[in-house]
Amino acid sequence: MSHLPSPPQKHKGEHKGHGLPRGSERGSSARDKDRSVTVNSTVPMPVGGKGSRTSCSPSTLQKVPNRLINEKSPYLLQHAYNPVDWYLWGQEAFDKARKENKPIFLSVGYSTCHWCHMMEEESFQNEEIGRLLSEDFVSVKVDREERPDVDKVYMTFVQATSSGGGWPMNVWLTPNLQPIVGGTYFPPEDGLTRVGFRTVLLRIREQWKQNRNTLLENSQRVTTALLARSEISMGDRQVPPSAATMNSRCFQQLDEGYDEEYGGFAEAPKFPTPVILNFLFSYWLSHRLTQDGSRAQQMALHTLKMMANGGIRDHVGQGFHRYSTDRQWHIPHFEKMLYDQAQLAVAYTQAFQISGDEFYSDVAKGILQYVARNLSHRSGGFYSAEDADSPPERGMRPKEGAFYVWTVKEVQQLLPEPVLGATEPLTSGQLLMKHYGLTEAGNISPSQDPKGELQGQNVLTVRYSLELTAARFGLDVDAVRTLLNTGLDKLFQARKHRPKPHLDSKMLAAWNGLMVSGYAVTGAVLGLERLITYAVNGAKFLKRHMFDVASGRLMRTCYAGPGGTIEHSNPPCWGFLEDYAFVVRGLLDLYEASQESSWLEWALRLQDTQDRLFWDSRGGGYFSSEAELGAGLPLRLKDDQDGAEPSANSVSAHNLLRLHGFTGHKDWMDKCVRLLTAFSERMRRVPVALPEMVRALSAHQQTLKQIVICGDPQAKDTKALLQCVHSIYIPNKVLILANGDPSSFLSRQLPFLSTLRRLEDRATAYVCEDQACSMPVTEPCDLRKLLHP
């Protein structure tokens, strides 16, 4: 990023960040550390670094497209005019490498990745580098969001053999796909303390010619070590570890890394990591009468408040940027990812459930407003991301953050109106600048802007409470709130005229599943049917455009085509474990929000397909990819970290528990136990790396509540009881609507439902555990007492 501190000895890339505190199993790979890798002394790979961002002159650019021009992926299309003979990941490239006995150069990134743009501009547009890549290597370009399996395998190698990982990820492979050496971003040319990409290519070419056998032996040795290190299996264990012990250790590790002043769990960069906040809320609920429980709640709520007040939140257009480059949540990496919006909407909604503070629900609604406006296809699907970079003005070279930053002059011109009743002369612009910390010199420190691109620019970040700002100028709090909202709206209208960041209009099943959850949970808790409608439309989109009825399989991707159409790659990109896990979670959340049993039925079918395609019948748990799809890859992995997104195995553990609660099918409970047992060693070693799975472990070792509402779905008394349930934070439950029809889907799954009766023909609630139910209640206040004693 253009504004990250850039010590010359460091080698940068888009961080493989997880925001976990120190003590994570993989260390803090999100740091600005050396990303270059060496696996043996025969290929010395000195530390790379950030080079100057120079572009090739138009006369030297290759105008003839390469084979990527036929792809749908926005990332691959960004490289379609490189003077590089790019191949796709597939048999054609592998056969060429084996036939010509050349190493494979694998380059992995995604379309909104700032450092991917840098490397594309500096190196992949360079004619000489293009010749090297085309003549001496078989060059393969992969969109990590289309092929997370390829990305995960080789990222595991990069992280294991270096001090971190990130994107772009560049790895050199043998023709048999075993990794030789890898890193992330490389500058094009050598610097004083770093080796450039051209030199790296020349050295690897030379070593391949002179020391090929040594390279192959080392590659085989490293691959064997990675296989052993990455194996996750039940082994001789029969039961998962103690939830109480794992909970306690996970909380203690988080407590040790917690930032008391600004919230969060690292110095910088800081990632939102909703999985950690989810864990803290669950920990609070089960320990709420203890000091540690209160501490967990305070840590999560304070972190969410500081994030919402910081520059990581877009105060003008809403939504959250990907991460903060500083401890204060002030200067973000400006990229916006769908998966962050989805998970943070749920986290802020849960904060509202727990605290009753509408500050949190307003943030959640703002996130979903942003997604509806900027990341939604008219057919109901959700786009992947918006880029960090955009031109400050049309025709100019893109700069990071240009769309989002402001000068004092711009704000003064947009908001010149005097504020009546203030104790001193004051304009609307001056009020907004005071509240959000704008200064004439700009509020971005030179250390965060080494190239000076953001001089005089400001990122809006809340500096004072409404009460303090009002007191400072002798104004009423409500008046200040109105003035600030009006001012932000004027900035929003003005910002519409700026060149917009690139939109990655690819749609991923996994992230759409997360977004269905975001809208469903928030809509249910806040009682907003319009939000639930977005969730319904998202689920319909998934079923219509990303589900193959004949095989019962999900597709990984689809793309926005011209005129609002939906396009697919040919052959289709089939779904990975995370696609099934996240979509099943979304459908379960949508059933509880809408009480439409068709979504629950589809969730069950998808879970059956997931079990068939990904379940490890020998070792327990789920593989991340299908065996057939990953043929040829040196590893078949089970994701073992909850990071920016939760691990699909962690989500699957929760899904299996919920599905057992909805159906009583013992097989799903057995699978959940085997999954948790398989991950026992990972949880024991570093529980903080798997907070979502520790939550699932706790849920399994407690008793899941089946909350049954017997009533007419459209009746007011039924809706009142349902809304009572939604208003309370109860993570370990399933919510079931029993409409009295013994032939209904749920009645067939859970025969005991037919024994539950309405009292005096009124909507009636039961709270059941292990098919033993409470006394019936008909009043929301009585139900609240049962659920929240």
From TrEMBL:
Positions with biased composition (Basic and acidic residues): 23-36
Pfam short name (any one): Thioredox_DsbH
Regions of compositional bias (Polar residues) in chain numbering: 52-62
Top-level taxon of the source organism: Eukaryota
Main subcellular localisation: secreted
Species this protein is from: Callorhinus ursinus
Main function: May play a role in fertility regulation.
Localization per Swiss-Prot or TrEMBL: Secreted
Keywords: Developmental protein, Differentiation, Secreted, Spermatogenesis
Any one Gene Ontology BP term: cell differentiation
Name of the featured protein: Spermatogenesis-associated protein 20
Cleaved signal peptide residues: none
Any Gene Ontology CC annotation: extracellular region
